[in-house]
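Format notes (please read before filing issues)

Several people have asked whether sequences and structure tokens are stored in separate files. They are not. Every record keeps both together, in the order shown below: the sequence lines, then the token lines. Line labels are part of the format and must not be stripped during preprocessing.
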Amino acid sequence: MIDVVCILALLCYFLATAGMVTHVIVQKKDIEKISMYFLIAGFSFHTLFLILKWWKWGEPPIVKLSETLCFLSWAISGGFLWAEFKYKIKSLGIFVLPIIFILALTAFLQNNHHSPLSPVLKSFWLPIHASISLMSYAFFFLAFCLSCMFLIQERQIKSHHLGAVFKRLPSLDTTDAMIGRCIKIAFSLLTVAIITGSIWAESAWGNYWSWDPKETWSLILWFSTAAMIHQRLTLGWRGKRFAIMTIIIFFILLFTYLGVMFLMKSLHSYE
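Then the structure lines:
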């Protein structure tokens, strides 16, 4: 049954992506609505998939790299649906939906053989810390996509070349507000993730902080984001400057998530 649910989730994500791309080309509202229905269905099947996998294994499926990619694609999907519900900005889907499908497909194609958790990971802090961390990553990703949208739109305005995509984008003010909102949510989640990780580390190893490379880069990400939010609140950073800084923050995130694993020896390396 798990495999069937997996295939249905992938199929719905693919159809949602294809529908959104088609909508941008032909600009038919009906296609856009159908695409969103497929995304909701994909997210629902994806949620069921995670629940069934946790139930089957008796452990949270969020330890291996493929499992984190699976959860991340689910979190991005949920974050995008939240953004659409709150801001009615379906045009973000042209940036987000292909990535959701690619991440989900990559995760589902990986070896899903289950191996028992090591004793240190058998803690109720695991699903709390790991899931909150990945949800923060999802909102950083949404902020990155919104920043790309902002820069593309601003460039089109300055060049007086308003293409078909421009007609589907929200105003620059709306996009900027969404970037700020996503960054604040991501920062809040990251803060909770660092705190819960520290508590878990103290209970597992006897100290709250060990300057493990993943911990260090998470702290760099936290301070960088905090500085950017501070500049927005005190100096009024808006528009292009904030969008560019968000993109830089996203690359720090990528190194924190994947770079540390491939380039450094860390207790947080994925299997």
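For reference, the curators noted about this record: The mean pLDDT is 84. The chain has two domains: 1-111, 123-271.
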